[in-house]
Amino acid sequence: MISQKSIDAIKKAINFKYDEHVRKLISIPNAHLNRILPNKSMPIIDILKGFNKDSGKELSRYGNEIKSEISRVIEKLQINEFSEEDKKIILDIVDEYCKPELYLKRFEIMLSSVERRISSYGQKIDFKKYRIDIPKSLCEAYAHNTTQRIRSMIENELDCIIESFNSKTANSKSKVSEATNYLELKPNFFGLGLNFNAIIDKLFKRKKI
User: Fold this and answer.
1) Which residues, 6+ apart, have CB-to-CB distance to 71 below 8 Å?
2) Does the chain have fewer CB atoms within 10 Å around its N or its C terminus?
3) How many CA atoms are closer than 13 Å to the CA of 162, on its beta-carbon side?
């Protein structure tokens, strides 16, 4: 099992990426809100679709970033073992920093921002005249599906890391076993010594092959 210090380092790295992600999410509405102009027809649904598209791209980018960051930190820490329990701990951290509720909240904030922008021009909007439920449902579905996909992607990455550790362990044991076969212990003047004749014989046979 990896140390608490290593877990803290992984969590800190994910938290850094999360803060960056939130800043990018906050900046997304501006370009779409600028499409709202005074005394002009308001393409509300198109605006919300564009907002959802950009938010979705950012969520996918974020997922790839935290996957890469987890692998980078594990490699940098030179962890000697990694278990299923370690995987569960890291996935719990991922769940903490990858919740679909965040994106639904951002959608609601976007709606409020649209209303405020229109009000700033002395106009009012009745959202009941628009099918706001459609982009909202799409946002909800995409948020749930993508956060689950990100979790599965990271879980697969952690499974590969576990497999890599297991392979290294198995390979190390194999080398030790092979070395033991060559280094047969035989009695000599000093007690127990190495059977060098056996080693030379085996190496000579290998060379012939």
Assistant:
1) 157, 161
2) C
3) 14
Task: Look up residue 109 and give its two tokens.
Answer: 């904030």
CA dist 56 and 52 (Å) reads 6
pTM of the model: 0.78
125: left (phi over 0), alpha (psi -120 to 50) or beta: beta
pLDDT of residue 182: 46
* Rg of the Cα atoms in the chain: 29
In angstroms, the CA 189 to CA 130 distance is 97
Give pLDDT < 50 ranges for the chain. Answer: 173-196, 199-200, 207-209
User: In one letter, which amino acid is 123?
Assistant: Q
- Residue found by looking up tokens 């497999």 in the block: 163
Report whether 111 contacts 71 (CB < 8 A): no
